[in-house]
């Protein structure tokens, strides 16, 4: 972690009822997977959400209406930030692991698919952001490769109980990287992709269709926040 605080946008990905048994006690409440991103303008390209299977998560009461699923560390940080009701230890309603979340159907702001699914990613860190990541394979080599691994490896799907239909169609060309664990190659792919996508990219869907990514990023972020579909999170 750097010396400067990092400011993320938390995307509120709503868990769609009926809830699985582990989440049954939350039924009737608004429950969200809280995904931390630096690229809110890419949310049109979401295909799924990522969790760490062995990661520890909790369902925390964030304010009068919302329950967020995220790491305890992030819940604590958030409790001292603007969105929360009181700067107080957040109440954990249910303790969860990543395994409990795999396969959860979600409704996520700006996603083209009505429903996207929660899938396992082995490189998710639980000491960064919220431990929940939204997946945009077209703009993120990490996301691309993790989805590629799941699609290409039936044994990996089997291990985590991933059904074929949960992995939405990916949208970009092959990067010749063999798995999500090839750190050096991925670092180079990311350098190229992020730079190009951000500085040269143009939106091709949604209300900002045709506008440059760089120009509309702050607009899209503000719109998500105004619509109560996202919040600001710093750490
Ligand atoms: B970004 P930084 Cl399209 N573990 O969101 C692993 N990765 C995490 C994470 C965690 N706990 N929390 C967040 N992230 C990812 C979108 C995106 C992102 C695109 C392109 C680039 C990009 C869709 N995934 O990040 O270490 C999230 O992925 C480029 C760095 O704090 C988050 O933004 O700089 C980014 O890493 C935050 O990384």
TrEMBL record:
Highest taxon of source: Eukaryota
GO molecular function ontology, one term from the record: aminoacyl-tRNA deacylase activity
Gene Ontology biological process: leucyl-tRNA aminoacylation; post-embryonic development; reproductive structure development
Keywords, comma-separated and alphabetical: Aminoacyl-tRNA synthetase, ATP-binding, Ligase, Nucleotide-binding, Protein biosynthesis
Family: Belongs to the class-I aminoacyl-tRNA synthetase family.
Record-given protein name: leucine--tRNA ligase
Organism: Prunus yedoensis var. nudiflora
Entire-sequence positions represented here: 239 to 473 of 1092
